[in-house]
Amino acid sequence: MTSQNIVILCTIGVYLLGMILIGVAFTKKNKNSDDFYLGGRKLGPLVTAMSAEASDMSGWLLMGLPAVALMTGIPEAFWTALGLAIGTYINWLIVAKRLRVYSHKINAVTLPDFFSKRFGDNKHIITAISAVFIVLFFIPYTASGFAACGKLFSSLFGMDYLTAMIISAAVIVLYCTLGGFLAASTTDFIQSIVMTIALFVVLGFSEAVMHGFDNIFANVSQLDGYMDLFKGFDVASGTTSSYGALSVASTLAWGLGYFGMPHILLRFMAIEDENKLKTSRRVASVWVVISMGVAVVIGITGYSLMKSGILPTYADASAAETIIVDIARVISEYGYIPAVVAGIILAGILASTMSTADSQLLAAASSISQNLIEETFRIKLSQKASLWIARISVIVISIIAVFMARDPNSSVFQIVSFAWAGFGAVFGPVMLFALFWKRTTKWGALAGMLAGGITVLVWKLVIRNIFVGTILDFYELLPAFILACVAIVVVSLLTKAPEKEITKTFDAVNKKIKA
Prior knowledge:
Blueprint: H1 3-25, H2 33-38, H3 45-72, H4 74-105, H5 111-118, H6 125-157, H7 161-209, H8 213-221, E1 231-234, E2 239-242, H9 245-252, H10 262-270, H11 277-307, H12 323-332, H13 336-376, H14 383-404, H15 412-436, H16 442-466, H17 477-494, H18 500-514
Antiparallel strand pairs: 1-2
Helix pairs in contact: 1-7, 1-13, 3-4, 3-7, 3-10, 3-11, 3-13, 3-15, 4-9, 4-10, 4-11, 4-18, 5-6, 6-7, 6-13, 6-14, 6-15, 6-16, 7-11, 7-13, 7-14, 8-11, 12-13, 13-14, 15-16, 15-17, 16-17
């Protein structure tokens, strides 16, 4: 191992140690499972905003998105980023405050708990179905984060991929099981700062090496379709393809996913004062636009760096997900101080991955320990036992995720895409109807969840494989979201209207929101 690599490793080590110490610091603040999962609703506006967006972006921001922009040009990366930016803003604008008020009113601390109490589901059928879907989609989502960590260390230090992934997973599990939601949110806030620094350092270095953005864009402008919003260019094969209205709608549909992301919605529920959410919305929206914009430009600069021989030639988007790792390696070759900078960049990739994985682990663990064991199966647990079950759940889920991510050739972008569609279709429509349509029934909500989840699975695993390259080969979130909405409306109108107590609570929440 070179001296520069040792410096990088030490820098990353300091960062990881800091995350663990935060977990230790928050251990004593977890008196019960409610504190462990929602932090006692004590988050400030800045931590709420940045922890929500850091947990949202994951390794996808620093690995998946630049790789897509590098290998296919502007279209898919731009329209996906635009859809996410719009979805972020609307989610904060119409969902955040209403969910905070509603969840506090009915004393709900998890997403399945909110749905169950909102619809008066005393038998906890919705709770059980919600928990199963959360575990189903969060495990591969968490696996994508572990895979990103494994790729990072394997590519940089020549470590065995599986060993690198397990070490990274162990650190995430350690501070999650110690500090719970408050530790995850605080580390997410810090990680969002590290991610931002990493993005701008990489962009600045790339611009300097290529002697200005004029040279960078001159190189890619020669590729037919690379910079065209309605065309696509495959760098690996050198072919151009059309990017029509259906493709645009398909990628913009990523924005629909925000309405159903448990790890983001929990931040809305946890803020200490709903009146401060306006500040959170502004901070979150600005950060998302800037960070994704920089990530896309890094991908575009990557083509010039690749053609100039500074970066290796990537075979496909999965291989190109190490672009920022490779840039960091080049920076480290300039001396010890640049090696520290490279370490910070790589810590940024770890931050983007860890900030999502920790939140996902907590949400999945709460579904098992609280929503399934305590509420669905009605097993009485003491506060101490409940807290330990939560921590054991985090460990078990992590082990399964590590097993799923054992393949070093897995694509972070593709795994995140599938899990994002799952959450968006299962919970997004139900959340919107729960907050804005009083007539929604528990059977309508259940029908919507099942319709959304089943459609995502069938569309992804069956329809897109059978009809690849046809009009039906588009992102599964869009048809699943639409069908889930239809199912909610139809079934709600066909079943008995909600009880008076439920509609009374709905009206009380509306009144407070408008006050």
